[in-house]
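[agent] plan:
  1. take the single chain provided in the ticket
  2. run structure prediction with default settings
  3. attach structure tokens to the ticket
  4. add a short note for the reviewer (M.T.)
[agent] executing step 1
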Amino acid sequence: MPKTKYRNTRRAIFNLTVHIVLVTKYRRKLINAEMGAELKRVFKSVLASWDSELIEFNFESDHVHLIVSFPPHKLLSSLIANLKATSSKTMWRKFEPNLKEFYWRKRVFWTGAYFVASCGGVTIDVLKKYVQNQDSTPPDPVQNSSHQ
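[agent] step 2 finished; step 3 output follows
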């Protein structure tokens, strides 16, 4: 079984990983191989500026999947908003003729919503058992006192 990779900052040791799915506006099937490669490049660049890391990336013609590791001091919703805004602007700058076929004058790329789910090294059941098996009885101060 592989060892969990923890990252650290000055104040935290962490392993925060999420699965993000972004869907094209109106679920248009427009992402081709060239666009997919450009999206991956943009996502890596944005994540690096957020002290985050793209663990895995894949796409289909109407959506992308990202597995992202990010630090606890970053707001996930802001990170996702930045990923969407930057990638949308880049796609319009590089692929405007193609995108005009699908969106006419609207300069959109992604739908307003997104999917995100946490990914962890253990299942919820394993974590529940760990918490349940912790010693919940507080120590008796009289027994632990050195003044007997």
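[agent] step 4 note for reviewer: The helical segments are 33-49, 76-103, 124-132.
[agent] ticket updated
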